[in-house]
Amino acid sequence: MVFIEPNVSDWDMEKMKCKYCENLCVKNGFHTNRAQRFKCKCCGKRQLASYKYNAYRQGISRDIISLTKEGLGIRSLSRHLKISTTTVIRRTLEIALTIKKPMISLAKKYEVDELCTFIERKSRQIWICYAIERITKQIVNFRIGSRSNKTLNGVIQTLILSQPKHIYTDGLRNYKTLIPKEIHKTTRFGTNHIERMNLNLRTHLKRLNRRTICFSKSLVMLSAVLKIYFWG
Ligand SMILES: [Zn+2]
């Protein structure tokens, strides 16, 4: 919320009409943003002459999406759009909820990899495991968690359901047990595309930048931001 006095002359203020019943209002103290507050003489409802909530500006969700993709974190978004951090967080989560995963087409080649980042504090490592389709570079699915079978399996199971031609991974041992031998490939340069995507992610998303003090405070937010970046 921005502290802007409503642009109403004194004369208007004297003759302020109630928004609900059109009767005459009288001055009644001040709003927390120091704007004159009014109270209706008839229905008793308190109101302001005009409201200035930047968060309700049109197109603010679109701004959040594009600026998130340009690498702005919560606090820089809040400064840039002049809305509070809590609003940025709430809006980001709302936007992420409306985004749906893309459909997976059958018999394609995929690359799977993990990306390390931190959550809450620098000592708490977390892994983003995700898969891209080799030709379109579309991100098919992702999971956030420890570098364990459970996290990896969340991604790999959806791939296996789509009857892929091959799944390319690095040499991590877990993959051997999770992916059927016939379609699993760990050839050299097999994961070039996804390694390149890792660099994109690290560059484009503030919270994934390396050697900075920027990282996500919560898993939910990290997941929401990734969803917006991948599919928003
Ligand atoms: Zn009224």
Structural notes for this entry:
With 232 residues, the chain is an alpha/beta fold. It has 3 domains: 10-48, no CATH class; 58-98; 109-231, Ribonuclease H-like superfamily/Ribonuclease H (Nucleotidyltransferase, domain 5). Helices cover 35% and strands 22% of the residues. It contains 8 helices and 8 strands. It has helices spanning 10-14, 60-69, 74-81, 85-98, 149-161, 173-178, 192-204, 219-231, and strands at residues 25-30, 36-40, 46-48, 109-119, 121-133, 139-145, 166-168, 184-185. A 5-stranded mixed β-sheet has the order 6-5-4-7-8, sandwiched between helices. A 3-stranded antiparallel β-sheet has the order 1-2-3, with no helix packed on it. Helix 3 packs across helix 4 and helix 4 (85-98) crosses helix 8. The model has no long low-confidence stretch (mean pLDDT 86).
Quick structural gist:
Helices cover 35% and strands 22% of the residues. By secondary structure, the chain is an alpha/beta fold.
